[in-house]
Every structure is written in C-alpha cells, then in structure tokens.
Amino acid sequence: MKLIIASNNQGKIREYKDIFEPFGFQVSSQGEENIDLEVEETGSTFEQNAELKARAICDRAHCCVIADDSGLEVEALNGEPGLYSARYKGLKTEHERRMAVLKGLEGQKNRNARFVTCICFIDESGDSHLFTGVWNGVISAEEEGTNGFGYDPIFISEDGDGKTTASLPLSFKETCSHRAKAVRGLITYLRSRSMKQ
Question: Which position among 18, 36, 59, 69 bears the catalytic label?
C-alpha cells in the first residue's frame, strides 16, 4: 500500500519510513512523487494544520498520506510562538527566534512552556486519524547546547534533569519528545489496525 509523507525534511522522512515500512506500506516523500506543493497553514490549531497538509497531498495523489505540525507554546507569551514557531515574528534564523522568546520573557518569573506535535494520517478510505504529543517544560535563561534544532537550546523539559534539550543526547529527544509521544500513539493505532486485517 502506498503512503506519501507531506514533507521534504529528510530526517522526518527517514523516521516515518522506519515506522511505516514494517506495516507493509511503500513510503515516499512528496518530493519523490514530484508533488511540488506548499500548503498554506491557515488552521487555528496544530491539528487543523496537520490535516490541511495531509488532505492537500491526498487530494492530489489519491493514496494514504501522513503530515504533522508542531511548535513551542510559552505560557507567559500567551502561547506564542505556537503555530508560528517556524516563522516567529518574521525572523529568518532559528537563533533570532530563540532570542525573541528570551527577550519576551525578560523579568518574567513564569517560564512554563510546552512543545506540541500533531500527526495526521489519512488512510486508504480517506479517513483522517490524529495523534497528539505534548512535552512540558520551562524556558532557560540563555541558549545552551548544540544538539537538536529550533528551540531545543532554550527548552528544559520536565524530564531533562535541568538541562536544555540541546545539551542532551539526541537519543533522549527521540525517546521523550512531543513527536516521540505522538509517534507512539500512531504506532499503537497501526498495530491494532494490522491485527484486525
């Protein structure tokens, strides 16, 4: 059964191939399928954006599709950067976006934050299935560490022993993160589905 990943991120594509291929799916990225489509993320939630991306590819390719959307929500910043994590305040680099978060928290005692990921899987019948993962933590006082990407150098997870995610081995994030939690929900669903077939 064919499955297209609504992404051109090579790390993400490898991860999803590792998940789906054991369940009998023939996995390819949208680039490998020559689908040059940049879906406008007009949803008001991560769930809506993940489904928008998955549905747009499904409408074009007429097969199973997976897409996800994720971001960082900072309590004292009213949930920002949230849906706009990858393009926060129009800033070009990840470092600039991290600095914007740290600047916004200057003088704030509340540094609570969370990462959220939502995965949308559209099956061969066109039905969508959503899997969400949340990773709670706080924002550090400064950048620290070189592992990971995005906001990892300023995020200290509740299970991170006081260290930023970027200061810990990548294997820690792959096991404990918001995406890892959403993926576990997806795998549980795929296993139950394969048992019924």
Answer: 69
* CA distances for 60 relative to 6, 33, 137, angstroms: 11, 11, 39
**Parent domain of 7:** 2-196
Q: What's the rounded Cα separation, in Å, for the pair 27 and 143?
A: 37
**Diameter of the chain measured on Cα atoms:** 56
Dihedral pair phi/psi, residue 86, rounded to 5°: -80, -10
Is position 69 annotated as part of the catalytic site?
Answer: yes
Tokens describing residue 194: 């394969």
Model pLDDT for residues 46-85, shown as the tens digit of each residue: 999 999 999 999 999 999 999 999 999 999 999 999 999 9
Domains held by the chain: number: 1
- Look up the CATH number of the domain holding residue 94: 3.90.950.10
0.70 surpassed by pTM: yes
